[in-house]
Design goal:
It is built from 13 helices and 14 strands. The protein is of the alpha/beta class. The strands form 3 sheets. It has an 8-stranded mixed beta sheet, sandwiched between helices. A 4-stranded antiparallel beta sheet has the order 10-11-14-13. Helix 4 packs parallel to helix 10 and helix 5 packs parallel to helix 6. It is globular, with a radius of gyration of 20 Å. The structure holds pyridoxal-5'-phosphate. Pyridoxal-5'-phosphate binds next to helix 5.
């Protein structure tokens, strides 16, 4: 998926493959005053994140302090170091699917075995198959990987399911790796429950790329027990050493409580304005789709009814309509497409029209 996106996203006229809202400009983050930024040193910054940034992040997690936090280059680095430290040949990982597939690919690299548990669409809702999870874990299970809110479905796993996953993890003493990068993008404004504080062996990953609309800063973090954070810091020495000083500075700005509130409100406003646009487009094409609207995130996962493979459909959209989406194949779910609805409204409408044109032609 990453290669599909990076090879094409700057070449198509309409990119609806993005999973976040359209990004902020530097100017908006600095409220028009960039003079301090010009005086920032371009040396190495504190490699696990400046104390101030780690304290600010820790304040978002009840009972955490700066020693529970490691700042990384994007949440993808946080996921990488955590997965790398836990998986070796023959180990097992239980993984929520569909999902952002980084962990899936890493597990293959480390010759670990993935035991999936699926989110299944039942009566128009995505429900976690907890029985499959319970059956799939055992003494070899090192990690249980979840993504909440979920990419690509936009579904939110509620508190009761979070508790159940913790109960199952506890039984086999597995660690939970909870990717919470879409937290803060809930359409109803109710923050998704974090796994932090629910169970001792938890690693939460998050970052500024989705809810904050700042993917270009490449700031992510993980929150866990002090001892594990200290161990993972050593892994981070071998990946990127540390975040860029400018990004650390800008992340501190973005996460100041008042600014943070404003940024999250901006994200929700975009999503709340754009989802009805997407819904009415789906309604106009209801012969082609069945659709469970997302509860969070700038992404919708649509089942289409035409008899065409999803990669072929996405490929034709690029070639014939210069429009990029993500085929369900990339999540192991042919018959679906992921459409990002976070761009400015006019752009979104024009991109959706292109998809509509092709679908009509294919009928
Ligand atoms: C669920 C999920 N986790 C992690 C990432 C990695 O994002 P970043 O490294 O920009 O934080 C993405 C990016 O699309 C994602 O969708």
């Amino acid at each position: 998926m990453e290669r599909w996106q990076s090879a094409l996203e700057n070449r198509v006229e309409y990119n609806l493959s993005e999973s976040g809202v359209h990004p902020l400009q530097l100017d908006e983050l600095l409220d028009g005053d960039g003079t301090r930024l010009l005086k920032e040193s371009l040396g190495y910054s504190q490699t696990n994140g400046t104390e101030e940034l780690r304290r600010t992040i820790a304040d978002m997690y009840v009972g955490a302090n700066q020693e529970n936090v490691l700042v990384t280059n994007g949440s993808s680095e946080a996921i990488f170091v955590a997965t790398w430290s836990f998986l070796e040949r023959g180990a097992e990982i239980a993984m929520m699917l569909p999902n952002y597939m980084q962990i899936w690919g890493l597990a293959r690299t480390f010759q670990a075995r993935v035991r999936p548990f699926w989110l299944r669409n039942q009566d128009g809702e995505w429900a976690t198959d907890l029985r499959a999870l319970e059956k799939g874990v055992g003494k070899r299970t090192r990690l249980i990987a979840v993504c909440n809110p979920n990419n690509p479905t936009g579904a939110i796993v509620g508190e009761d399911v979070v508790d159940e996953i913790c109960r199952i993890a506890k039984k086999v003493r597995a660690w939970i790796l909870s990717d919470e990068v879409y937290q803060g993008t809930e359409l109803d404004g109710r923050t998704t429950p974090t796994f932090w504080g629910k169970y001792e062996r938890v690693i939460v990953t998050n970052g500024l790329s989705k809810a904050y609309g700042l993917p270009g800063l490449r700031i992510g973090w993980l929150v866990s027990k002090k001892e594990l954070v200290s161990k993972l810091w050593a892994y981070h020495d071998y990946t990127t050493i540390g975040p860029s000083a400018l990004s650390d500075y800008l992340a501190r700005k973005a996460l100041q409580p008042e600014k943070r509130g404003k940024i999250l409100a901006r994200t929700r406003k975009i999503l709340q304005a754009n989802l009805p646009v997407l819904k009415s487009w789906v309604e106009r094409h209801r012969d082609n789709f069945s659709f469970t609207p997302p509860s969070a995130g700038a992404i919708a996962f649509l089942r289409y009814l035409l008899k065409i493979n999803s990669s072929e459909l996405a490929d034709r959209l690029v070639r014939e309509k210069s429009t990029l989406i993500v085929p369900g194949d990339h999540f192991g779910m042919d018959g679906f497409v992921r459409i990002g609805y976070g761009p400015p409204e006019g752009y979104l409408t024009a991109g959706l029209d292109r998809i509509g044109d092709l679908l009509e032609r294919l009928k």
